[in-house]
Amino acid sequence: MGIKENKEYILNEIQSACEKKNRSSKGVNLIAVTKYVSNETTREAVLAGIEHIGENRIEGLLSKKEYLKDLPVKWHFIGTLQTRKVKDVIEHVDYIHSLDRLSLANEIQKRAVKTISCFVQVNVAEEDSKHGLPVKDVVAFVDKLKDYDSIKVVGLMTMAPFTEDESLIRNVFSTLKQLQLEIQKQKMVHAPCTELSMGMSNDYSIAVEEGATFIRVGTSLVGKEF
Ligand SMILES: *Cc1c(COP(=O)(O)O)cnc(C)c1O
């Protein structure tokens, strides 16, 4: 199948998940994760109507952004961000999905020339292999970010464990939703926290059912070339 067909299929799945939960599918944004595909394939995705592109490596993001500079795209950095690399990417991103430590916040604050929309990454399942804050530390962390006027906490991000166990995945996503509500209750100006970045190729339907507003889909949308 081509990207257009993949996209139609995914949009249908989003629609069904939303209907199940009585929410509007307008609130769900599809990010095409292009880390496994070429610049040309990424262009194809944008021409098929994709508005959001996600990359987990700086070189990939910069190369694709240059190649697609004639097209309107929102750029999402979704990978682990090394503090010393912030300066290379900060001017080129619309969203950072992986804010998980104050040293990174310090560097973003130091380098930013405009407000940066950030997701705080949460390691809900506390897997050693994944980055992100444990749930118990998130509220205090978000509170500390009030001193960083270049950082806007637009939402929370997580990755579910890679497992067949649907109830475990669902539990991770609903925990992130609960945490979002807890943060929203505090009505912090710097942290509206209206967004939830969760769901990938294998689990985006569950994520949408549990309240995702940005899903990050690679393989099942644009395929895998390398
Ligand atoms: C690679 C990646 C994705 C997309 O993964 P697929 O399984 O190919 O859809 C989503 N989020 C992050 C953070 C990733 O690194």
UniProtKB/TrEMBL annotation:
UniProt domain Alanine racemase N-terminal: residue ranges: 23-223
Domain of life: Bacteria
Keyword Transcription: no
Residue positions where N6-(pyridoxal phosphate)lysine is found in the record: K35
Family: Belongs to the pyridoxal phosphate-binding protein YggS/PROSC family.
NCBIfam families: YggS family pyridoxal phosphate-dependent enzyme (TIGR00044)
Protein known as: Pyridoxal phosphate homeostasis protein
Lineage: Bacteria, Bacillati, Bacillota, Bacilli, Bacillales
